[in-house]
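Sanity check record (used in CI):
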Amino acid sequence: MTTASTSFIDRRTVIDWLGIVPFMVFALAFLIVPTLYLIVGAFFNPAGEFTFQNIFDLFSPSILGAYWISIRVSVASALGGALIGFFLAWAVVLGGLPSWIRSSLLTFSGVASNFAGVPLAFAFLATLGRTGLVTVLMRDWLGFNLYSTGFNLLSFFGLTITYMFFQIPLMVLILTPALDGLKKEWREASEILGASSWQYWRMVVLPILWPSLMGATLLLFANAFGAIATAFALTGSSLNIVPILLYAQIRGDVLHNPNLGYALALGMIVITGISNILYIWLRTRAERWQK
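Expected output for ABC transporter permease subunit:
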């Protein structure tokens, strides 16, 4: 190899590395450094003294209850989003629907999966609140009072439904490529061997899609577990989930203990980190199956 070609390769390598510098700086400034700051702060008290008290306080009944509610909401919205999202993705990829429906659904899913926070909370309050459009129409036109059944948008069930608005389209976006990866030859081979459609799905498709399904569900769980803006705007402090309790500890006037808030954040990091690690592992297995 000549000196000129070696010099060109070196310059190309430098340019390639320079291309990822903005991402590395962004990740360092807004992800890695804040995470390390939270982890370190969880082991100090407001006076700057090293302590494990913040970690011990995580096991108090009120904080354990907040974690339990957050886990329940995350699991319920993840399972609901995964189930409905799977059938939507299956319908547009393998159900024989017109191509324009697929493109429209994927476009909507790309927008809806990022529609959260205060706008989403306001949309649900304006739709399913006590004086929301759907609630009023059902009461005046059908004589059915939704809230007389015990339904409450500012509750566990209401927050779960609200979360599913962005969980379902996210599942569609994640699962569509996995369904696209199913080879026609697999169905043809199963039909030649005399397998029914149910046997094909049970013995061929589901074992192949299982890592993708489980990984996507774990990702939905982590996505819901860390959400705060939607829950805070929708329920305020009426539903004691971990992100709202964390916000109260760091920014609140009554429950103001920033270091306990850092410990709460550390617990969230551990839970979502485990979910994301499992998701990456399952995604790797799914990609290996579909090659």
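The radius of gyration is 24 Å. If this sentence no longer matches the regenerated tokens, the check is flagged for review.
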